[in-house]
Write the structure tokens for this entry.
Amino acid sequence: MVCTCFLLLTVWCASTHGLLYPAESETRQIRSLDGLWQFRLDEQGVGETERWFAMPNLPEPTILMPVPASYNDITQNITIHRHFGMVWYARDFFIHKTAPRWVLQFKAVRYEAHVYVNGQSAVNHSGGHLPFEVDIIPFISSNANYSKVHVVVAVNSTLTPTTLPPGEVIVHNPTYIELKPTFDFYNYAGIDHSVILYSTSSAYIQNITIDTETINYDAQHVATSAILTYSVEIAGNNHANALDVLVELLDANGIVVANNTDFQSRLVVNKPNLWQPCGMNHTHPCTEQSYLYTLQVTIYNDPSPKNVVDIYRISHVGIRIIRLTDNQFLVNERPFYFHGANAHEDSDIRGKGFDEVIIAKHFNLYGWLHGNSFRTSHYPYADEFYSMADRYGLAIIGETPAVGLGQASYFSQDTLEHHKQVIVEMINRDRNHPSVLMWSLANEPRASLKEANAYFNELFNFTRPIKAGRPLTFTTYMHVNTDLCVQFADVISFNRYPAWYSLDGRLDLIYDYIVGDLLGTRHRFPSKLILISEYGAETVPGLHSDPPLMFTEEYQKDFYSAYHVAFDNASSLLHPDTGFFIGELPWNMFDFATDQDISRVGGQNRKGLFTRQRQPKAAAFVIKNRYEQLELIPTPPSKIL
Ligand code: BDP
């Protein structure tokens, strides 16, 4: 994104440094602005010119709209359901000037947001899934101790060839104008995630990074010590003057196990408890917790007497290192095998709206399934998914919203710049989560095009220096002889659908197809690991047939079982010295909403192991049984030690 930031009175773009999760502390207050906001459509796109942002209320007709939620499925109105373009949200609140900074953070607004505070433009943000924020103090009157604040948000959900994901507006005639997304999920929009107001002191902790540099082991592979590297950035008034920092690492009992007084340095931890991914032979089940430390950062005024200026805690620090060999994906020098399922942020009524109920259920169902991983297909999810994954030890493949880059014109310079911006925002937000084991830069781009080759060459080169210890991948549906981009990835991620999108009904042909595909790719890239990042079959719950026919529960069961036999041929767990296949992620964990289409019964993609209401189909039990067996396979430490 190319933009100019004018600090203080007007901020025209969201900042690009890491945004810390808004967390309460001795020096920070948090306030939720979730609730019912005033809402209306702007079908003619006149709100900006008519200056709705400067009015005390949005012009009628308005309705009350819950935040966070996608607006599409909240009402009975089909116009709101299928609306794309501009919508407006507004609400008032009071602010008490007990702090020098009150920061308004939007955790995700799909897709383009213009935020006005008390009639003035405060912040703009492009891209629908990641947070942005603005200090609102410059926009409120300076002479009272409290002030009424009027916030207005204009949201545009139109997709264009340069948005991520891209889309096209097709004007069939004046009454039939259609937004054609280039992807297979419903284009939900609105203020989907929470809106938070938090305070800080005038000098404040702006960003913290923490990584595991080294873990030392004894002969029994017990960790004897670990070295963590960290950096603390401060910002705001007086930050040029001397401030002191105290960085402390606390164990799960709150005992300080390492500390340092530099802004950027190392912490040495003796006898560390490692963060372990769940669901492996040497680790815990996915219903139990991984070990997490808390990093506590305090900044003080200098000279003495020392006053605490700001305190921030990251409560999900995990000590772990990822290393790839030619045959295994190692976490803490033991093989890790992704056995989970892909998902979407998607549920009844809420659309892509954030809801802790849905998130808690998500993890309980992965625990039930013995599923140890998911990809955030096809965009970054709410922070809370990552914190929960840290706690339970689920592995995340964090994916950008670059889904549907399906034609040469989408690989433009504008898209490339926006894609880089999104990658920076995603990595800055998520890099401190131990659960993130890999970054996926895109889903199913048309990787056979020369334009894609140049684009991804540059994108991978851009991302490598900032990848924070994670391997890079993207998912491909192309075969090795046509794919011009897979060469850039550290790990090859396949999306494959034989016996669904090809070889209709031919479960018997799956084995040869998948084995041939895996061996052919490995032959071309003898040191790259491969995982299957999607495979699945549409299944209408309650539809049965024997022999199994497409769309029935029996077909979905047999479909998965046939793939599993093929995977085991190349499994890095079963064949530690010759295997190269490091994981399987069915498409999808849950049925999810899509556009209406003759192939999408009731406007849903029904490849879920569970229905959209989170109830199991028969295949869920096949996968559960498979994952229970995978957990029994021994996972000895790598021989390098
Ligand atoms: C894959 C896409 C995914 C779709 C899936 C399907 O990556 O987004 O939902 O196909 O068609 O190609 O079910």
Observations:
- The CA atoms of residues 324 and 405 lie 28 Å apart.
